[in-house]
Every structure is written in structure tokens, then in C-alpha cells.
């Protein structure tokens, strides 16, 4: 059969992530301080981007200047949404005329000393991953015991048999869960010694196919530490350059995977949103303190007739980038407001009463309510904080699972945790409440049947010791 060349047309749809789209997605998940740094850096890099100074007394309105420059330099409506002068009034929940006073009230409800959030601990970080994993409930119970027996450096202090005895499970089941936990972030956590920690990281990096590297870690870490290289060169028939490559790989691993996590000391945060009550309604205000009001620079009016093609291309690209940044910032703030407004609608009881009335909520509920994708809601609620009449909370706090009540309704898991915390705070220290007794109290209070194991799980998540340990403490 003869070979021949043919031309063929084919149509296909493909999602292309442009740099502008990537920038818009990145802005969504930035915290407030990271956003300020990003905007300041963009203002330094882009000569067509500047901070609005308000009314400068110019006879020609700023909007007219932007539209005129747009017609000359770029044929699209770059200045659309660029004016932030009316930004807050467009989607604030109260008229603009009364907003200056409302900002003062918003500051009053969240004093500086209340604006802090605990740093993530190793235990909390691992428990969060455990709850999001595909493990069964029984395996998650084993995982919680494993995580509860880790040192500050991330090493497992209990043996497999001890954990099996504590969880009333088989040692093989404990080993299976342990292997899963060791692959959590940071990789290598829950290892029983340094060798196992490094071997887990090697496996995760797909370097475990090299038998020499595996043998160096398993049997010769002491030789490497003591720089006894000559016996290794003879044994593995390597030269010094090849051994140095193995050393570089081993040195790039982290023998103390849990050391990067603090002990939970507080770190101060600045809320992204203020929510407070005015009359019978809740008012939402975005915190724009320190965030520059951007506009296109007057440089876009310069004469381009004598400029080279390269200079024109540079100016056009920077002009386009400045306009896109302004639009992306506007969209970010607008999305944040819409998500917060939806959360207030879904969690009305929380804002009225407090944590004990927090309702079950998932990302899909908010996404359906505001007609956005779940990934967008997830990004905009990352590293964002809201100041409420009941304190400052991360937006992720409002999303929690639900427990079925006897009457068919649901109660949020965070509400159950709040009640457990309250019961234990009010208990008689000489006779602490057992998990079983707390379950009975929850049944009387919420009309919900909660197993003792579930109470223990929530108590562990709250970092509250068992009744016997609480009694010993007092």
C-alpha cells in the first residue's frame, strides 16, 4: 500500500487558561494582605496603573479622560468598571449617604484585640485532611487516634498494637490507615523513625524505583551522616559525582515534617467583611481600608504617532493589563459580597443568636443560590474573615455537615460542638461528664441521637481531653 499525505480539518472545543483568566482566579483566593501586596506590585510594574486621588479639580471629568484615552490606544471599552468612585454604592446593603457612619459602627463591633485567629496546628491540619478523605468512618476513627499520638515533629509515638488496642481494631487495619496518613500533607508525617519518614517521601516523589537510593536510606544513613563515603563507593560501584547526586536528593527531603507547624499561638487578622445588625436587617460592608482605588493613568493620552511598533505594542499590552486588573478586582469584591450576602441568608439564625444555631451548609448551596460554580465559592472563601456580632470567623467556618434530628430537620455539626464545649465548661470538675452522658444531654437539648463515638470525635476536634484526664487535671 502506497504512503500518501492528506489534509484533514477537525473542529474541537478546548478550554484555554489565558494569563488574564489565571490572574482573575488567583485574585479570588488571595487574603486581604496578599491582595494589597499584589496591587502595590502591579502599580510598580505597570506605568498605566495609578491610584485615584479623588477630585483633582480638572475641568475634564476622569471618566471622560479615560474614555478618550481608550478610543486612542485600545479599541475595547477598557475603562468599563474602572471607576471605583461609585463601587460601594452599587452593591452595598444600605444607601451611600449613611455609609461613613456605618464604617465607624463596623469598627466598634470588632476591636483590635479581637482580631486574631489561631495558627494552624499539625493536628488540626491533619484532621482536616482526614475528614476530607475517602476513608470509612471506622478508618477515620483509627486515623484520629494516630494523629492524636504524634509528636511536635510529626513522628508517631504509639506502636501499631497500642493503637489497635485503643481503637479495638485489627493491627492490619491500623497499618493500612497509617500508610494513608503518612501521605497527607506534610508527606512523611506519622512515621515511626527517620528512615520510614524519608522512605515515604521518596515513594511520594516516585524515586523508589532506584534500588541504590532505597538501600542508602534503609541501611547507610549513619555512614552518610559520618561522611564515610569510600565504603559506599566500593559497595555500590559509584564515583563521587554519582554519590553526590544521591546526597542532594536525600538532603532535599524533610526529616521533621511537622516542625513547620506552630503550637497554635494567635495571629492577628484583619476582617475582609463586616456584618452587623441595623434595625431588623443585617448590613454587609466590605473592608477596603488601605486598598487603592485604581484608575488608568493619564499617560494613556501621550502622542503615539512617533512611537515605534514595539513601543506601541508595549503600551497597548500594559493598557490592557491595567484595565483587566481593575475589572478583576471589581469582580473579586463583587463575588465576595454576593457570597457573604448568601451566607447571611442561609445562616440567619447564627447571626441572630450565635454558634449554637449554626445551620448545615455546603458549598453547593451557596453556589446554586448565587448562580456560580462551587470552585469559585471555594476560592473566594479561602483565607477570608468576617467580623460578626459574635466574633471574627473564617468564611469556611460557616460550611459544616448536618445531623438529622428526630423531627426530620437538621442541626449543624459546629452547633453540636459548641454545645459540647458549653456542657464541659459548666461541668462539675470533681465529676466530669462522660461522653455517654454528654450524648444524653445533647439528645435532651437537640432531640438528636448521637453515639458516644461521635461525641468523642467532636470532643477530640475541640482539643478537649477525656473525662478521666479532665478529672486528673483538676
UniProtKB/TrEMBL annotation:
Pfam families documented for this protein: Sigma54_AID, Sigma54_CBD, Sigma54_DBD
Family: Belongs to the sigma-54 factor family.
Domain RNA polymerase sigma factor 54 core-binding: 113-298
Any GO molecular function: DNA-binding transcription activator activity
A GO biological-process term: DNA-templated transcription initiation
UniProt feature, compositional bias: Basic and acidic residues: 62-72
Protein name: RNA polymerase sigma-54 factor
Keyword Transcription belongs to the record: yes
Amino acid at each position: 500500500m502506497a504512503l500518501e499525505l492528506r489534509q484533514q480539518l477537525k473542529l474541537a472545543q478546548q478550554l484555554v487558561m489565558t494569563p488574564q483568566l489565571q490572574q482573575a482566579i488567583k485574585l479570588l483566593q488571595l487574603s486581604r494582605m496578599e491582595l494589597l501586596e499584589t496591587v502595590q506590585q502591579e502599580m510598580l510594574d505597570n506605568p498605566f496603573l495609578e491610584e485615584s486621588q479623588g477630585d483633582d479639580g480638572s475641568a475634564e471629568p476622569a471618566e471622560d479622560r479615560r474614555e478618550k484615552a481608550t478610543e486612542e490606544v485600545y479599541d475595547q471599552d477598557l475603562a468599563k468598571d474602572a471607576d471605583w468612585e461609585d463601587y460601594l454604592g452599587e452593591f452595598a446593603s444600605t444607601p451611600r449617604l449613611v455609609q461613613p457612619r456605618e464604617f465607624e459602627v463596623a469598627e466598634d463591633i470588632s476591636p483590635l484585640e479581637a482580631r486574631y485567629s489561631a495558627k494552624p496546628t499539625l493536628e488540626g491540619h491533619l484532621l482536616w485532611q482526614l475528614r476530607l478523605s475517602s476513608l470509612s468512618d471506622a478508618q477515620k476513627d483509627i486515623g484520629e487516634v494516630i494523629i492524636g499520638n504524634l509528636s511536635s515533629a510529626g513522628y508517631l509515638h504509639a506502636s501499631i498494637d497500642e493503637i489497635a488496642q485503643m481503637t479495638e481494631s485489627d493491627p492490619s487495619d491500623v497499618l493500612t490507615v497509617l500508610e494513608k496518613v503518612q501521605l497527607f500533607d506534610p508527606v512523611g508525617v506519622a512515621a515511626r523513625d527517620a528512615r520510614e519518614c524519608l522512605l515515604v517521601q521518596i515513594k511520594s516523589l516516585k524515586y523508589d524505583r532506584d534500588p541504590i537510593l532505597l538501600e542508602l536510606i534503609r541501611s547507610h544513613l549513619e555512614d552518610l551522616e559520618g561522611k564515610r563515603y569510600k565504603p559506599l563507593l566500593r559497595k555500590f560501584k559509584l564515583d563521587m559525582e554519582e554519590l553526590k547526586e544521591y546526597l542532594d536528593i536525600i538532603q532535599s527531603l524533610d526529616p521533621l515534617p511537622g516542625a513547620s507547624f506552630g503550637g497554635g499561638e494567635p495571629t492577628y487578622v484583619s476582617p475582609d467583611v463586616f456584618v452587623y445588625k441595623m434595625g431588623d436587617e443585617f448590613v454587609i460592608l466590605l473592608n477596603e481600608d488601605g486598598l487603592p482605588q485604581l484608575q488608568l493613568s493619564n499617560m494613556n493620552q501621550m502622542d503615539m504617532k512617533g512611537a515605534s511598533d514595539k513601543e506601541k505594542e508595549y503600551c497597548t499590552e500594559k493598557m490592557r493589563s491595567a484595565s483587566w486588573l481593575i475589572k478583576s478586582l471589581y469582580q473579586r469584591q463583587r463575588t465576595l459580597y454576593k457570597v457573604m450576602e448568601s451566607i447571611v441568608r442561609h445562616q440567619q439564625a447564627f447571626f441572630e443568636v450565635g454558634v449554637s444555631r449554626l445551620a448545615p451548609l455546603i458549598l453547593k448551596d451557596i453556589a446554586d443560590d448565587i448562580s456560580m460554580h462551587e470552585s469559585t465559592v471555594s476560592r473566594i472563601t479561602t483565607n477570608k474573615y468576617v467580623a460578626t456580632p459574635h466574633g471574627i470567623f473564617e468564611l469556611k467556618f460557616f460550611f459544616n455537615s448536618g445531623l438529622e434530628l428526630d423531627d426530620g430537620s437538621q442541626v449543624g455539626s459546629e452547633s453540636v460542638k459548641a454545645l459540647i464545649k458549653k456542657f464541659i465548661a459548666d461541668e462539675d470538675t470533681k465529676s466530669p461528664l462522660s461522653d455517654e452522658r454528654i450524648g444524653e444531654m445533647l439528645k435532651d437539648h437537640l432531640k438528636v441521637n448521637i453515639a458516644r463515638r461521635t461525641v468523642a470525635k467532636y470532643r477530640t476536634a475541640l482539643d478537649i481531653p477525656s473525662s478521666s484526664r479532665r478529672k486528673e487535671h483538676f
